[in-house]
Write a structure and sequence with these properties.
Blueprint lengths: L8 H22 L12 H12 L7 H15 L4 E6 L10 H22 L3 E6 L32 H4 L4 H23 L4 H11 L7 H5 L13 E5 L3 H5 L3 E2 L10 E2 L5 E4 L9 H7 L5 E5 L5 H11 L8 E5 L6 H14 L5 E4 L7 E2 L5 E2 L2 H18 L5 E5 L34 H18 L2 H14 L1
Parallel strand pairs: 1-2, 1-12, 2-3, 3-6, 6-7, 7-8, 8-9, 9-12
Antiparallel strand pairs: 4-5, 10-11
Helix pairs in contact: 1-10, 2-6, 4-6, 4-7, 4-14, 11-12, 12-13, 13-14
Bound molecules: erythose-4-phosphate (E4P) and phosphoenolpyruvate.
Phosphoenolpyruvate binds next to loops.
C-alpha cells in the first residue's frame, strides 16, 4: 500500500495509522481459507513477482472507477441497464486489436439496441483487461494433466511442463491487461461511429433477421451518457495478482477508508469462491471498487442477505451486483425468495442475469457448449421474476465474442453439435458468436420493451440527454 508524502507530520501519522489498519485487515482476510489458487512450484519466485506487481502502473483510474460506481447506482435505482460481455477466458495470444475491436464493437451495438428498447441508458462493461484466470471444477483434465487455469497461471498446451503454474505469467498478464485497456479506451470510443449500420447489416445477413425490423426502426443515436466510455471487469480470483497492487483509495462508499484496485473498474467473486468464511469475500469487503458475487442455484436467501450485509454495509445503491446464474430450469424457483429477502433489507443492489454458466452441457465428443434457447429461457425467467416482484432486472452478463466462432448451439442458423468443430476456439467455456449475440440482443430488446414503463423511459432518456 502506498501514500504520497508532503503532508504535515500529524496528518502523515494519521494516514500511516490508517494504512496500517487497512494492511492488517487485508492480511487477516488473506489468512482465511482460499479456493482455486495455484500452488506455485517456487514460492520465493512468486513472492518476487508479487513485489514487482505491487509497484506496477495502474490499469484503470480511480476517477473512472468512481464514475462507474455512480452509474451502477443508477442501475440499482432502476434508471439504467448494465450490459457486461466478453470472452470466457482472455488469452495472451488474442490480446490483439482485431479481436478487441470485434468484441467491443459487438458490445457497443448490443448496448445501443438495449438502450433504445429499455428507454434507459446502458452501462457497457467488458469482461476484458484481466480475465486471465479461471476457476475449474476439477484439478486434472481428461488426460490426467493438471487442468488449464487461465493464461495468468499456466498454458493450455497439453504437457506436464506447460501446465505447471508459472508466477511470471502474472507479470505478463498485467502487461497485456494494461495494453488491452489502453487500446479498449480508444477502440470503444471510435468503434462504430454509426452503430446503426452494423445493426442493420446483421438483420439483412441472418436468416429471419427481418422479424426484428420493427425494433430496429426505433434505433437512433445512443441516449446513454458518456457513451464513448468503456468500463472493464474480471473475476477477482487469483489473490496474489489481485491483492498486490491494492492501495488506499482516494474515494470511499462509507465512513471508513477502503482499498482501491487499480486492476479493473469492477471485480466479481465467482460461484466457486463465494464461501462466507473465505478470503475472497473478506478481501472484497475492503474494496472501494463496485463488486459482484455470482449466485448459483445452491444459494439460499439467507446467504444472499449476508453478501449484502457484508459487501454493502452502508446501503450504497449499486455498490453490490448479485449475478444470478441459476440455469433456465431453476431460475423461476430459486431466484424469487432471494430477491424478496434482499429487497426486504432495503439495500439497492444491481440484479444481473448470467444466462451462460447455469446452462453448460457437454456434447458426445466432449465439447462444452450451451444452447441459445436455454440462454433465452433463463433471461426470460429472470425478467419474469423481476416483473412479478416489481424489482428492476438490472443487467446481463454474457460470454460472447464478435468473432464468427461455433461454440454455442442454436440461434438463427440452427448450429448443431456437428457444426461446433468448425471454429471452436474458446480457451475455456463456449461463447455466443456475433450473430447469436445480436439475435439475443434483439430478443432481449423485445423483452425489455415489454417490461419497461413508458413514463420511466421518458424521464430517464430526458435526464441522460441533459447530462451529456
Ligand atoms: O468459466 C467458468 C469456469 O471456469 C468453467 O465453467 C469451469 O469449467 P470446468 O467445469 O470445465 O472446469
Ligand atoms: C467462472 C465464471 O462463472 P461462475 O463463477 O458463475 O461459474 C465466469 O464467469 O467466468
Amino acid at each position: 500500500m502506498t501514500h504520497s508524502s508532503g503532508a504535515a507530520p500529524g496528518e502523515a501519522r494519521v494516514r500511516a495509522a490508517r494504512e496500517q489498519r487497512l494492511a492488517d485487515r487485508l492480511a487477516a482476510a488473506l489468512a482465511r481459507p482460499t479456493a482455486q489458487q495455484p500452488e506455485w512450484p517456487d514460492p520465493a519466485r512468486a513472492r518476487t513477482v508479487v513485489a514487482r506487481l505491487r509497484a506496477s502502473p495502474p490499469i484503470v483510474t480511480e476517477s473512472e472507477t468512481a464514475q462507474l460506481s455512480e452509474r451502477l447506482s443508477a442501475v440499482a435505482r432502476g434508471e439504467a441497464f448494465l450490459l457486461q460481455s466478453g470472452d470466457c477466458a482472455e488469452t495472451f495470444s488474442e490480446a490483439t486489436e482485431p479481436h478487441l475491436r470485434a468484441n467491443l464493437g459487438l458490445l457497443k451495438r448490443m448496448a445501443l439496441l438495449l438502450a433504445h428498447a429499455a428507454g434507459l441508458p446502458v452501462v457497457p462493461l467488458a469482461r476484458m483487461a484481466g480475465q486471465y484466470a479461471k476457476p475449474r471444477s476439477r484439478p486434472v483434465d481428461a488426460d490426467g494433466l493438471p487442468v488449464y487455469r487461465g493464461d495468468m497461471v499456466n498454458s493450455a498446451v497439453r504437457t506436464l511442463a506447460a501446465r505447471s503454474p508459472d508466477p511470471e505469467r502474472m507479470l505478463r498478464a498485467h502487461g497485456h491487461a494494461a495494453r488491452v485497456m489502453a487500446l479498449a479506451r480508444t477502440v470503444y470510443a471510435q468503434e462504430l461511429a454509426d452503430p446503426c449500420t452494423g445493426i442493420l447489416s446483421y438483420l439483412q445477413g441472418v436468416p429471419g433477421g427481418d422479424r426484428f425490423a420493427r425494433t430496429a426502426e426505433r434505433i437512433g443515436p445512443d441516449p446513454s451518457p458518456r457513451s464513448e466510455q468503456i468500463y472493464v471487469g474480471h473475476e477477482m480470483l487469483l489473490l496474489d495478482y489481485e491483492c498486490a497492487p491494492l492501495h488506499t483509495a482516494g474515494f470511499t462508499t462509507g465512513p471508513e477508508p477502503l482499498l482501491a484496485s487499480p486492476l479493473a473498474h469492477f471485480l466479481w467473486i465467482g460461484e466457486r469462491t463465494r464461501g462466507l468464511g473465505d478470503a475472497h469475500l473478506a478481501v472484497a469487503e475492503l474494496l472501494a471498487n463496485p463488486v459482484g458475487v455470482k449466485i448459483g442455484p445452491s444459494t439460499t436467501p439467507e446467504q444472499a442477505v449476508e453478501y449484502v450485509r457484508r459487501l454493502d454495509p452502508h446501503g450504497t445503491p449499486g455498490r453490490l451486483t448479485l449475478i444470478s446464474r441459476m440455469g433456465h430450469a431453476l431460475v423461476r424457483e430459486v431466484l424469487p425468495p432471494i430477491v424478496e429477502k434482499v429487497t426486504a433489507t432495503g439495500h439497492q443492489v444491481v440484479w444481473q442475469c448470467d444466462p451462460m454458466h447455469g446452462n453448460s452441457r457437454t456434447t458426445a465428443d466432449g465439447r462444452k457448449t450451451r444452447h441459445f434457447d436455454d440462454i433465452v429461457a433463463e433471461i426470460s425467467g429472470f425478467f419474469e421474476v423481476h416483473r412479478t416482484l416489481g424489482t428492476h432486472p438490472g443487467g446481463l452478463h454474457l460470454e460472447a465474442t464478435g468473432e464468427d466462432v461455433t461454440e454455442c448451439l442454436g440461434g438463427a442458423r440452427g448450429l448443431r453439435e456437428d457444426d461446433l468443430s468448425a471454429r471452436y476456439r474458446t480457451a475455456c467455456d463456449p461463447r455466443l458468436n456475433a450473430e447469436q449475440s445480436m439475435e439475443l440482443a434483439f430478443t432481449v430488446a423485445e423483452l425489455l420493451t415489454a417490461v419497461s414503463r413508458p413514463a420511466a423511459r421518458q424521464t430517464a432518456l430526458h435526464s441522460s440527454r441533459s447530462q451529456r
